[in-house]
Amino acid sequence: MSEATEKFDTAMAKWQEWQDAPWGRLRYAIAEANLLRHLSGDGPPLRILDLAGGDGGDAVRLAARGHRVTVVDHAPAMLAAATERAVAAGLTELITCVHADVTALPPDLAEGEFDVVLCHNLLQYVDDVPGTLAAALAPLQRGGLFSVMAINRHSAALTAAVREMDPAAALAALDTDLARTQTFDMALRLHTAEEITPVLRTLDCEDVRHYGIRGFCDYITDDARKYDPAFYARLEQLELATTARPPYMHTARLFQLTARKK
Ligand SMILES: C[S@@+](CC[C@H](N)C(=O)[O-])C[C@H]1O[C@@H](n2cnc3c(N)ncnc32)[C@H](O)[C@@H]1O
């Protein structure tokens, strides 16, 4: 097992704590709402491929809507947790977990002709972004929906200044694409929607839409307040109202791009 895979495996407890926190819940809720803008509500169930799908945070929500989701990940503990979640939600018929590297998919998946492919929060861990996106798009059928999400580099300086109150770190963050994840204790490379959009276009994607996730949450430093259900509900409304609204999407903590394959 590679060092990186091991880090994803051993950080499960921290990762699940992050997912259950208000900022984790917002990440999944807003991403799902953005996907639903592009999926017909009353059509037949879709075949969805969730690449680097981890422990199934997106997959379980989509399967609960009746879709068939295949989760691919290279970390065995993530896949075991995804299976546990599918069992707990009574969704084992609709969720399949596959142990594989995104850039070396088994042929039945690589030629799978999926209706939807997700590639959420993988790009910050890879060296070859165009190659990874090309591999991710291969299993998508023409006209299918692609969704890619990653940490937004524009948020790094704001996060350092507002949350850490460290103007020097904010200044330094303006001129680097390197960062670190505390959850997985790994180096990250940060990107922007403006950089990834043209890459998608060169890979035969059209109708690229840009959404921001957590345009406000991360800049409210009183994290304890976010656990108050009434406060959380109002914050979620605000995030939903601004996910596609300039300028907020440009400085949100994460960017999500959706696109159609030509
Ligand atoms: C931050 S987690 C995101 C999980 C999920 N997409 C989400 O947003 O909840 C990153 C995941 O990518 C997986 N991963 C990283 N590089 C990968 C690769 N080359 N092939 C397959 N999985 C990979 C890790 O094991 C981990 O589960």
Describe the protein in words:
- The chain contains 12 helices and 9 strands.
- The chain has helices spanning 3-10, 12-20, 22-36, 57-63, 76-88, 107-110, 129-137, 154-162, 167-173, 193-202, 229-242, 248-251; strands at 47-51, 68-73, 95-99, 114-120, 140-151, 178-181, 186-189, 205-213, 254-261.
- Strands 3-2-1-4-5-9-8 form a 7-stranded mixed beta sheet, with helices on both faces. It has a two-stranded antiparallel sheet with strand order 6-7.
- Helix 3 runs parallel beside helix 11 and helix 8 runs antiparallel to helix 9 (167-173).
- It starts with a helix and ends with a strand.
- Residues 8, 52-54, 57, 73-75, 78, 101-103, 120-122, 125 line the site of S-adenosylmethionine.
- S-adenosylmethionine (SAM) is lined by residues 8, 52-54, 57, 73-75, 78, 101-103, 120-122, 125.
Describe what is shown at a glance.
With 262 residues, this protein is an alpha/beta fold. It is 42% helix and 23% strand. It has one domain: Vaccinia Virus protein VP39 (Rossmann fold, 3-Layer(aba) Sandwich), CATH 3.40.50.
Low-confidence stretches: none
Quaternary assembly = single chain
Shape: globular
Strand order, biggest sheet? 3-2-1-4-5-9-8
Rg from alpha-carbon coordinates: 18 Å
Q: Could you state the CATH homologous superfamily? A: Vaccinia Virus protein VP39
Any idea how many domains?
1
Per-chain topology:
Blueprint: H1 3-10, H2 12-20, H3 22-36, E1 47-51, H4 57-63, E2 68-73, H5 76-88, E3 95-99, H6 107-110, E4 114-120, H7 129-137, E5 140-151, H8 154-162, H9 167-173, E6 178-181, E7 186-189, H10 193-202, E8 205-213, H11 229-242, H12 248-251, E9 254-261
Parallel strand pairs: 1-2, 1-4, 2-3, 4-5
Antiparallel strand pairs: 5-9, 6-7, 8-9
Helix pairs in contact: 3-11, 8-9
Residues 8, 52-54, 57, 73-75, 78, 101-103, 120-122, 125 line the site of S-adenosylmethionine (SAM).
